[in-house]
Specification:
By secondary structure, the protein is mostly helical. It is built from 16 helices and five strands. It folds into three domains: 2-106; 116-266, hpI Integrase, Chain A, CATH 1.10.443; 272-340. A hairpin with a 4-residue loop joins strand 1 and strand 2. It is globular, with a radius of gyration of 23 Å.
């Protein structure tokens, strides 16, 4: 266990008089905190408010677990203070209560779904009616808008292979709106709406990539805001920076970095999985409105294949159908069970 616990000896000393149940909860928190402590080169007891916030937001805990974790982190910091271990005597809990901290963090965590309207906000396609309480900013680049759009309709692949390999000249039939997609070990064809084809055409004309600047960016030596995009037959192109590599394909790592930059820019814990899950949910909504029942057969035979998943066993399909029905109720206000009666 000590290989995955930062400063194991101190934490073991802290837990020496705790009950077994309490110890288990603390060990769980300490094991989760380990990678963040390593990254920051400091123990959890020296975490500042933003460190705690980053740790717990990324772990996406439910409300009960979040409250328990904050309570125990405070106990651990108080103990470290009495022992004289803390670098700074003050703790984040001196200025912010557990309840206030919980409310701030819980508003950011556990979000798995974005509505169709919220995705349209990112694309700059949403027509505001002035009553929205939750808004997202438009993204800077057509390349990024297209990337979000394609993920939302089920185009991604393993390690973003379907995006990385997408080629204007080879893969897109502009007459039939059909795209040929190349994953790591498979090929498939999908027909996409005209608005996706339009974005692909807009993307071809894009020559510059606007960086997403934030406070961390302004503290680095590189303050360049605009980069030139390389000429390439691939839909998602690299930027010209330093010595360009031999490949004119964007790398999976660059796709991932763009998603992280977008997440920081919009102030959300946005991930490719959340975009994809949001697309599955919207697809389920569309199917429900067309009269389909959201059950394991619909998930297994219609929804998951659209997202390049063909290996779904019955139990997994059943579980996902149940989750989708609950999410339809939570996110879109659609009670599929009530609709059946």
């Amino acid at each position: 266990m000590n290989k995955k616990i930062y400063q194991y000896g101190k934490k073991e000393d802290f837990l020496s008089n705790k009950t077994d149940g309490d110890k288990n909860m603390y060990w769980w928190i300490f094991s989760k905190a380990f990678k963040y402590e390593q990254e920051k080169s400091k123990d959890l007891y020296d975490f500042k408010y933003n460190d705690i916030k980053e740790f717990l937001e990324k772990e996406k805990l439910n409300k009960s677990t979040l409250n328990n974790s904050l309570f125990r982190i405070k106990k651990y910091m108080d103990w470290a203070n009495k022992k004289g271990y803390k670098y700074l005597k003050a703790t984040p809990f001196d200025d912010v209560s557990i309840k206030e901290m919980e409310q701030t963090i819980s508003s950011k965590v556990g979000k798995k779904y974005y509505t169709y309207d919220q995705i349209k906000m990112l694309l700059g396609e949403y027509k505001s009616n002035g009553t929205e309480t939750y808004k997202l900013p438009e993204l800077n680049n057509i390349q990024d808008k297209l990337m979000v759009q394609l993920m939302f309709i089920g185009i991604k692949g393993k390690k973003y292979a379907e995006l990385v390999n997408l080629n204007y000249k080879r893969d897109i039939d502009f007459n039939t709106n059909t795209i040929t997609l190349y994953d790591e070990n498979s090929t498939r064809e999908v027909q996409v709406p005209q608005y996706v084809i339009d974005f692909i055409n807009y993307s071809r004309e894009e020559t510059e990539y606007y960086r997403y600047m934030n406070e961390d960016s302004t503290n680095t030596k590189n303050d360049q805001l605009i980069y030139e995009l390389q000429d390439s037959p691939y839909v998602f192109r690299r930027v010209r920076v330093g010595r360009s590599g031999k490949s004119d394909q964007i790398s999976p790592d660059s796709i991932n970095k763009r998603i992280k930059a977008i997440a920081t820019y919009i102030g959300e814990n946005l991930t490719s999985s959340e975009i994809e899950n949001s697309g599955k949910l919207y697809f389920a909504k569309v199917l429900h409105e067309k009269g389909y029942e959201i059950n394991k057969e619909t998930v297994k035979n219609i929804i998951f294949p659209r997202f390049n998943r063909f290996d779904v066993h019955d139990q997994h399909a059943y579980t996902n159908a149940r989750k989708l029905k609950q999410a339809l109720k939570d996110v879109y206000g659609i009670d599929t069970e009530k609709a059946k009666s």
